[in-house]
Amino acid sequence: MEARVGAGFLKALERLDGDVGDALEPRLRDMIRLRVSHLNGCHHSIRLHSESLAKAGTRPDLISALARPARQIRPGLVTDGEAAALRLAEVLTDAPRALEEEAREQAGAWFNGKQIGAIVEVVALTNAWNRVMRGMD
Questions:
Q1: Which of 8, 57, 128, 130 stands 20 to 30 A from 15 (CA)?
Q2: How do residues 99-124 score in pLDDT, each as one tens digit?
Q3: Does pTM surpass 0.90?
Q4: How distant, in Å, are the alpha carbons of 17, 101, 112 from that of 97?
């Protein structure tokens, strides 16, 4: 049986999507969305965020690299701050809670409290979208 998510729920997600992560640069938001979508195996979102990054002029090798853990991305391909944000996104999405403190501290070296909150918002909403899209496949 095909899942049918209510139109009101989808519209609410779309409205929320326009409001989250404003404290971050658009490129970093899309990088986080792509990394989280890879973790969740959401092929629709992987394609969507890869295309968005490509249209914004992001290097193809960086787009491909976001399929790997942040710690495995080639040095120089992302900034230390971007790597810290991606690592926090990974931990919030798919890692034991014990790793959160370390990831937050690393991100805190590069981002203020509002920006870390924006990372959390982007991760939470991307996880929600990924689950909705996978549930409707």
A1: 57
A2: 888 999 999 999 999 999 999 999 99
A3: yes
A4: 25, 8, 21
